[in-house]
Amino acid sequence: MNAPVHYDPASDAYTTPLDQIDVSDPHLFQDDVYYPYFERLRREAPVHYRKDGKYGSFWSVTKFKDIMAVETHPEIYSSEARLGGITITDRPMEFRRSSFISMDPPRHDEQRKVVSPIVAPANLNNMSSVIRERVCTVLDGLPRNETFDWVKRVSIELTTLMLTTLFDFPIEERNKLTFWSDCATADVNAGGIVNSEEKRLEILGDALRTFTGLWHERAARPGGFDLISMLAHSEATRNLVNDPAEFLGNLTLLIVGGNDTTRNSMSGGLWALCKHPAEYQKLRDNPGLIPSMVPEIIRWQSPIVHMRRTALADAELGGKQIKAGDKVVMWYISGNRDEDSIDNPNEFIIDRARPRHHLSFGFGVHRCVGNRLAEMQLIILWEEIMKRFPRIELVEEPKRIYSNFIHGITEMKVRIPA
Amino acid sequence: MPKITYIEHNGTAHTVQVPVGKSVMQGAINNNVPGIDADCGGECACATCHVYIDAAWLDRIGLPVPGSQEASMLSFAAVTQPDSRLSCQIEVADDLDGLVVRMPEGQH
């Protein structure tokens, strides 16, 4: 009775009637079988309507160019939280929290400008030595000839330490940041601790209380070049703490943005190299390729699966008629495999001519604020890895999270030969 | 063909010929001039082809139209100045022969 269900994603993707294809199913990403579904949509219905899918009715935008068109027209394709914000999940109205990623210009612009100096070129230089020191400590502590979980020992540890610097958060309590980040993005159907929006809010209430305390400390003293001090002392955001929902919205944005995405690229990069031994050898032969390998890793991983917009007006997109009020989902993970915009998109190539031509950071006014910080962390990590370990072996295929938003690796067993 | 000079943040100058009708950004990318990233490929959507226009050329080139997509993207770029432009939005023409642009400390 309990025989395993056999299914073949490649044939399934092509035998399911086109209007029944639902790429929002988180299993497709958890099981790493999403590829043929998007391949079919890109070929047969690049802007595709799914009525009454798992996450409601929505348009899927799957080609690079069409995604770019949505990104560059925020006056048509809104990110506004009360319309549904930036994820395909329509949260009940009382749980829709605003933050600058889920706002349109001009309010978005005012708030974003407050935090962006933290990743200005001069400050990136300042942070690079701290990052390198931590990378060295973490790598030097890894066991040899013994199986361990790369996600826990390296990816989570390094990105959480980065967050403590960005927020000037107590280092001994850093695990809370990871916990809150995971809770903020968890799918309520994933079978984890966050099984309802009420539960999510209860847990994030701890984050709100903790950060409200930090805010009042920082507001009382001038200076401080951490995100909380910057928000507390800027004209545009000095009263943010008095709007707990929006404060929490911005906190979770900054915690998730500074954490999850880089974490999963740290894991996904090693996975990609292990699965492409010729590229791994190319890297061993020439570690100077690291700066061009890193954006390729970020494309390959596509740490954010999608971003959602809501149409404010009727518009044409890829020959289809979008109606005001429609939910429009940009599948970055698909646009990053679009052969019309990227040469040999299904190959992992660490020395591409234009490796930064990918969608993982988004484009337009909402383009990832931290994109160069993310790259810098990954570059330093790989520089230090190559100095120490010519080879790291994949022991088991990675485990992935149940999500159509975060392309996450939860566990990856590896071994460093002695 | 108009000649354009790109000066890196460290002072290194690169003078290259760019065909009329191409953008100042494409001139840099096609000649492997470092310091301009152009992640989006010329869609005015990433602000990583940011340059400062030499004072002698500012009148001819002009500033971004207020409220335009370029003005909006530039407002998020790091280390902007009053003479900042996105080089993907400047089309090379015969009267830009000799144009000088400088690169910022970093692109993002």
Explain what the structure shows.
The complex is a heterodimer of chains A (418) and B (108). Chain A has one domain (9-415): Orthogonal Bundle (Cytochrome p450), CATH 1.10.630.10. In chain A, helix 6 (121-140) runs parallel beside helix 16 (371-388), helix 8 (174-185) crosses helix 9 and helix 9 crosses helix 11 (244-257). Chain A is globular. Chain A has 16 helices and 12 strands. In chain A, the strands form 4 sheets. Chain A has a 5-stranded mixed beta sheet with strand order 1-2-8-5-3. By secondary structure, chain A is an alpha+beta fold. In chain A, strand 6 and strand 7 form a beta hairpin. With 108 residues, chain B is of the alpha+beta class. Chain B has one domain: Ubiquitin-like (UB roll) (Roll), CATH 3.10.20.30. Chain B is 16% helix and 19% strand. Chain B is built from 3 helices and 5 strands. Chain B has a 5-stranded mixed beta sheet with strand order 2-1-5-3-4. In chain B, a hairpin with a 5-residue loop joins strand 1 (3-7) and strand 2 (13-17). The longest helix of chain B is centred in the N-terminal third of the chain and has 7 residues, at 24-30. Chain B is globular. Chain B starts with a strand and ends in a 6-residue tail after the last strand. Chain A binds chain B through residues 68, 71-72, 105, 109, 112-113, 116-117, 119-122, 124, 354, 356-357, 361, 363-365, 367, 369, 371-372, and chain B through 29, 37, 39-41, 43-48, 69, 72-73, 75-76, 78-79, 104-108.
